[in-house]
Amino acid sequence: MTSLGTVTGLQRAGLDPAIVWLDAHGDVQTLETTASGYLGGLPLRLLAGYRPELIATRLGLRPVAEQQIMLAGARDLDPPEATYLAGARIRRAGVTDLASAKLPAGPLYVHVDLDVIDAAALPGLRYPAPGGPGPDQVADALRRLLRTGQVAAAGLACTWHPGHNAAAQVAPYLTSALIAGH
């Protein structure tokens, strides 16, 4: 949900950011479709203009056009999310395909939810999804995005169960990507 404030801040600074969203989940639920009620399943849909009176209007957030959004790595979609994405203009790519995928034009807000990483490679995730890329592949994708010179802001998200040392396991990959991306 912090992405809403970050994109609002970019817009207030005079930028019109596009979005590259790396996540195992679509995050395009609505209040009407969510089975869990988990607000973390809504932010990309909110950024695209769903029910602005809920949050966006109060923040001053303008909707980001669907064609200016790329969803990468999403593989654990609820049926309403799959239906929405089938008819939406949101672009899709695999995390490892970001090098060859045509990125949205202009400045980018890059969102990385660490659950995009295969659950077998990052234990303790609250919302694990098998079949994803490894942490090295996510770091490579982040590095490539940073090297485009388009990244205006980035956000990092993850929810995991305590006691698995997940942060320490993924930190070297992210640190390497951030340092090399400059």
Topology:
Blueprint: H1 2-12, E1 18-22, H2 43-47, H3 56-59, E2 69-72, H4 79-87, E3 91-93, E4 108-113, H5 135-147, E5 151-157, H6 166-180
Parallel strand pairs: 1-2, 1-4, 2-3, 4-5
Helix pairs in contact: 5-6
Structural account:
The chain is α/β, with parallel strands linked by helices. It has one domain: Ureohydrolase domain (Arginase, Chain A, 3-Layer(aba) Sandwich), CATH 3.40.800. Helices cover 31% and strands 14% of the residues. It contains six helices and five strands; from the N terminus they run αβααβαββαβα. The protein has a five-stranded parallel β-sheet, with helices on both faces. Strand 4, helix 5 and strand 5 form a beta-alpha-beta unit. It is globular. The two termini are 26 Å apart. The model has no long low-confidence stretch (mean pLDDT 95).
Radius of gyration: 15 Å
**Order of SSEs, N→C?**
HEHHEHEEHEH
Spatial strand order of the main sheet: 3-2-1-4-5
Q: What proportion strand? A: 5-15%
Total helical elements: 6
Q: State the helicity in percent bands.
A: 25-40%
Q: CATH first level: which class? A: Alpha Beta
Q: How far apart, in Å, are the first and last alpha carbons?
A: 26 Å
| CATH-defined topology | Arginase, Chain A
Largest sheet: 5 strands, parallel
- Full CATH superfamily name: Ureohydrolase domain
